[in-house]
Amino acid sequence: MTKMTLASYPHMLGFEQLERLLERTAKSGNEGYPPFNIEQTSDYSYRITLAVAGFAEDDLSITVEDRQLVIRGRQTEDTDGRVFLHRGIAARQFQRSFVLADGVDVGEAIMENGLLHVDLSRAKPQTVVQTINIKKG
User: Fold this and answer.
1) pLDDT of 26
2) 60 in a domain, yes or no?
3) Domain CATH number, residue 105
């Protein structure tokens, strides 16, 4: 059986980059940590919220790399002079990736009550009609 791709459809022109983004997202290795929500806050804005309890602002980084929002967390081991009888809260690192469509911009990031909120906005689409003149050959 042949694998169907976007390039297999003759009316889908120029979508090769979208296909590569979908493949990269499928391989990004996002497990289940940290849990997150994505909500639509208006017709043209979104908010991603990650549960990052135990992380300080300095432990987190937010970057946009090749139309991909990447949120990383790395806690430092601070066990100097501490003796744990039980350690159920591990200092753990993570990386979460979200593919951004063209025209989606990352706004501000806010940390409150162990939740990291990242706001996204999308420009309102404009209807463009273009007339192409036909030349005699």
Assistant:
1) 63
2) yes
3) 2.60.40.790
